[in-house]
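ok posting inputs for the 3-methyl-2-oxobutanoic acid job
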Amino acid sequence: MRKIRVFDTTLRDGEQSPGATLTHREKIMIARQLEKLGVDVIEAGFPIASDDDFKAVKEIAETVKGLSVCGLARAMPKDIDRAWEAIQNAKKPRIHTFMSTSDVHLKHQFKKTRDEALEMSVEAVKLACSYCKDVEFSPMDATRTDPKFLFQVLEKVIEAGAGTVNIPDTVGYAQPVEFGKLIKNICDNVPGIENAVVSVHCHNDLGLAVANSLEAVRNGAGQVECTVNGIGERAGNASLEEIAMNLHTRSEFFGVCTSINLKEIYPSSLMVSNLTGMAVQRNKAIVGKNAFAHEAGIHQHGVLANSQTYEIMDPEMIGNKSQFVLGKHSGKHATKKVLKDMGFDLSDDELKQVTNRIKQLADKQKTVLDEDIVAIAGDVTQQLKKEEKRIVLEEFRIETGNKVKPTAILKLIIDGKKVEAKGTGVGPVDAITNALQSVSPTKVSLHEYHLNAITGGTDALADVEVKIVNGSGKVHNAEAINEDVLTASTNAIIKGINKALANKK
Ligand code: KIV
Ligand code: ZN
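and the output
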């Protein structure tokens, strides 16, 4: 069967999702998990974008070995130099350079003519090839580009040495049939195309990213670009798990294969949603909580008689085997093994903390599920360093009810000094936020607040995610879990403010 390369851009386009910022350590954990998942290429970041991006791409390049590590670069020498600096130590480095080709982008954004765009593209590919033998080129906004000009650009960049030409549906505008035709036309008509792999990169603005990618595969694409859980700019990118499971479940239809290790799909999804703070919608195909849940009696009856009646995929096949894996009798070694299988690499001290919290939870809940374990591990790994905890909570009290004004009183240590903060609000979380704002050393506001009961039930772990915005508008994500909703809320807001303070420094 023809092999389709899977190019994962969770750490680049995915991380561009509003509010999905990852720390350096989280990026490394996700890169390692993507290696286990069996993707062919990781787009590790955009090295010129910031020093943090550069450092993360560099470390990923030096850490993962079994796949290509790619750095993104605009078609500009300084971007390409920086991308190469970041990835040069990778076992298999790749430079991905891009330039817009649609008239609407060239006229309004780049103020360039088509000829100038063509020249920049060719020069960028030549420079990238002088560093690295694996070079990919993307004509951004390809689906709104005049096909004649698009074909000309593709021909010239292949001539210049690009081994992969990626066709981005940057704004998610294409329809499956026309996108399939475009890919077929490229494969049939671009001179020299036999020397390059045709890749596709679809966005989901009209909900068609996966359908467009699959249609492209049917018409000759040899690489698909996608992200775990479909995260990405605006409505996201094509979802890796949906593409992989379509190609697997309907392999007789597509006649192609991938190197994806299906059992790592669910652990990867859990890790990415936990670390990015981007929850997966319940009814999301493949990895949503309801993806394998049968509610209707007639369906339950069928599945009990024979699972094939209503299940076209086996949840265990994608590693979704939520079960009682750890409990109050589990020790550090068992915890380490389970967490390692889920992609978490923790220090001894962190492992001890996770083990203790699992035991505490097992005392209260009958079952400890994969989701609980990932949430606890995520909470522990996201802990701030001691010096970053300028605000420490000692104690808090909340008064609330239908006849009283919700009031929060917090005893805190701020920069080593005892401080008492009092606030009222429309509800207890608002009261906590107002109390903290009144004593915060920097101006902050609560931009978003999400509460999720991790495994359902009234005794479930409460997972609170917040976005704290500082005076200059920078967003800081923070998450805390606890069996008590208000403790989780207070801890998450304090963590967010501490992050804002650390960043200000
Ligand atoms: O969507 C897009 O066009 C991109 C390019 C950089 C490939 O992300
Ligand atoms: Zn994109």
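notes: The chain has a mean pLDDT of 92. Residues 485-504 form the longest helix (20 residues).
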